[in-house]
Each structure stands twice: as structure tokens, then as C-alpha cells.
Automatic annotation (TrEMBL):
<keyword id="KW-0808">Transferase</keyword>
<dbReference type="GO" id="GO:0004851">
    <property type="term" value="F:uroporphyrin-III C-methyltransferase activity"/>
</dbReference>
<keyword id="KW-0627">Porphyrin biosynthesis</keyword>
<dbReference type="Pfam" id="PF00590">
    <property type="entry name" value="TP_methylase"/>
</dbReference>
<dbReference type="InterPro" id="IPR006366">
    <property type="entry name" value="CobA/CysG_C"/>
</dbReference>
<dbReference type="InterPro" id="IPR003043">
    <property type="entry name" value="Uropor_MeTrfase_CS"/>
</dbReference>
<keyword id="KW-0489">Methyltransferase</keyword>
<dbReference type="InterPro" id="IPR014777">
    <property type="entry name" value="4pyrrole_Mease_sub1"/>
</dbReference>
<protein>
    <recommendedName>
        <fullName>uroporphyrinogen-III C-methyltransferase</fullName>
        <ecNumber>2.1.1.107</ecNumber>
    </recommendedName>
</protein>
<comment type="subunit">
    <text>Homodimer.</text>
</comment>
<dbReference type="InterPro" id="IPR035996">
    <property type="entry name" value="4pyrrol_Methylase_sf"/>
</dbReference>
<dbReference type="InterPro" id="IPR050161">
    <property type="entry name" value="Siro_Cobalamin_biosynth"/>
</dbReference>
<dbReference type="InterPro" id="IPR000878">
    <property type="entry name" value="4pyrrol_Mease"/>
</dbReference>
<dbReference type="InterPro" id="IPR014776">
    <property type="entry name" value="4pyrrole_Mease_sub2"/>
</dbReference>
<feature type="domain" description="Tetrapyrrole methylase">
    <location>
        <begin position="4"/>
        <end position="216"/>
    </location>
</feature>
<dbReference type="GO" id="GO:0032259">
    <property type="term" value="P:methylation"/>
</dbReference>
<keyword id="KW-0949">S-adenosyl-L-methionine</keyword>
Amino acid sequence: MVGKVYLVGSGPGDPELLTIKARRLIDGADVIIYDQLCGEKIISSFPETAECISVGKFASKHTLPQEDINKLLIEKAKHSNVVVRLKGGDPYVFGRGGEEAEEVTAAGIEVEVVPGITSAIAVPAYAGIPVTHRDYASSVTFITGHEGEHKDDEILEWDILARLSGTLVILMGVGGLERNTSRLLESGKSPETPVAIIENGTRKDQRVITGTLGNITEIAEDCNLKPPAIIVIGDVVKLFGVIPQNPL
């Protein structure tokens, strides 16, 4: 008999945003293979009976390459273990959960995904920024700012993104902030478009900086902004300071 792999989303970092199912699976796991983006409070709550393996994946610095993570999941499950692969946010929102599910399933091992609250929605909400609002935005688009430049060129159509009137939310975009804002500006997005960047969202050290598409790169540099952070672009940012932030 082989074990089973659960791809579990831990949410954006506030441990109270873990789902009941995620908490139950973590507490009953034989092996927990986790990312640092889960946050220290969640990581410190792991049961002592579980084998806990950090695979890094924080701020583009990976303890293990993705291929080795896939092999580790398969190896641990083949020893009849209940394996929880714990990922920040939601496993299928820029979390490579789909890739891991493919590899584990191909090895003949059962996989179950447990959705998590994505930081793309929760982090702006905690900062007092709704990603949609009848007066400001009737759509929201999630994009990754983390992929390599050539891959982004193939996937992201900046001219279309620049024309969208709704909200753009960029995950993992701090490292590529200057490049991504330049692409939007070059594609015709107004430099006066409001932008907010939320660092360590939903956590005690949450920090929000605001500006415009034309100056946010300089502001972020002056503030020494660090990942993890969510970038929100659009008129909904005008509500920052109007709608109260969640208490942390």
C-alpha cells in the first residue's frame, strides 16, 4: 500500500485563515513538506509527531528545485505516509500545485487538493482594499510577476492588460516591479494609475505603501520593500485609508 498526497493551501499567513480541513490534515500528517510562505505561526504549529521538511521557495530562493520536490512527494508517499504538501495561499494559484499533482498522479499515487484562501484577495482585503467595487472596478485580473522575462513575454499580453479598466493584482512581483510597471506604461497604462503594495499581508508586520504606476518603483526602493508582497493596480486603491484595515 502507498500513501496519499494532499496539496493543501495554508492561506496568506494569518493562522486563523487556515481552513478546518487544512488544520485537520496538518495535525494528522505523517510528513509535512512546506514552503516558508506559510508563515512562522503556522509552521510552529506543526505536530511533533510529523516529519517536517522545509523546501524553501521563499523570495525566489529555493531549498530544492521543483523536480526534486516532486520526487520527494512521491518517495514519502510510497512509504505509506499521509503526506501534506503545504503551500502558501492556494495550491493552484501560481503555486505549482498543478505540476505537483501531475507528477504524483503519474507515479500512481492518489492526490487530493485542499483549496486555501488566496493572498490575491485576502491581502488587499486586510489592507482595506476591495479588489472589486461597483464604483471603481467590475473585474479583477491576477497575474504573476515572478516568471522569467522570456516566459512572461510569451504568456502575458501587456497591451491587453494595460487596456483593462478593472483591478490588476500581481503576485510575486517585487523582484520584477520595475520591469512590470514599465511594460504597463509602455503599453499605454496611465502613469497616474493608483498602486498599492502590501508587504507581509495579514501578518503582524504588514506594511502598505501607495503611489502611482509612474512612481511606485522609486517609492518601493526608498521604503526597502521586501517580498512577500502583493501589488494592487487600479482605482480601488483609492479606497485605502477610507475603508479601515483589519486589526492585526
